[in-house]
Amino acid sequence: MLRLVIGDKQLSSWSLRPWMLLRHLGLPFEEIRLPLDTPRFRDEIGRYSPSRRVPVLLDDGLVVWDSLAICEYLSERAGGAGWPADAAARAQARSISAEMHSGFAAMRSAWSLRAADRGLHVPLDASARADVQRIDALWCDCLARHAEQDAWLFGRRYGIADAMYAPVVLRFNTYGASLSTAAQAYVDLAMADPHLLDWIEGARRELADEGRPAEHP
Length: 217
Hints:
The chain is built from 9 helices and 4 strands. 55% of the residues lie in helices and 8% in strands. The chain is globular, with a radius of gyration of 17 Å. The protein has a 4-stranded mixed β-sheet, covered by helices on one side. The chain folds into 2 domains: 79 residues, 3-Layer(aba) Sandwich (Glutaredoxin), CATH 3.40.30; 111 residues, Glutathione S-transferase Yfyf (Class Pi), Chain A, domain 2. By secondary structure, it is an alpha+beta fold.
C-alpha cells in the first residue's frame, strides 16, 4: 500500500496537496504523521525522506518527495486522472500548478496555513495583495474556460491544480480574503468538499490533543 508521510494538518500546506489528490483519486494509502518542529520529527524524518522534509510518498521501495512530484506520480498511477484530458487544458493546469509551487511567497508568508482557524485578521502588504489578486484572476480564467455548475478549476473532475491550490482555499477562508464572485464560489465549493473537511477535522483534533482550541474570533 502507498504510504504518505505528512506534517501537522493545522500547519503543513505542502502535505495537504498530495493528501487531497490521493483522496480524490481513490487510491488507498496509509497516513504517517510526524509533528513538525518536534524531537520526533527530527528523529524519524530521515527514515522516510532524503530531503528531510514532508510530504514524502513511499511505494514499496520507491521514494517520491516534493508535493508536485508526488502528485505527478499519483496521476500516473491513476492513468493520468490528475490532469485534464485535453492537451491545451492540461498545459494550462500544469502552468498554474507550477506557478503555485514556486510563487505567491508574500501571501504565503503573511497568511500562514492555520487550517482549523477562522476569522483571523492579518493585513497584507502590496506584494501580498497582488498575490491574492493574481490567484483570483487565475481561478476566474480557469472557471470561465471550463464553465460547469459546481465545477473544479478544469471541469467536473478534481485534479492536481485543485490540490495545489487547496492550501490557498484554506488561507482565504481563515483570513477572509476579499475575492471576486467567481473566486469566492470556488472557495465555497472547495470548503464543502468532504475530503477537505476531513483534513480540517484532523487539524482540530491535533489542537485538542495539545489543549488548544481552534481560533474563531
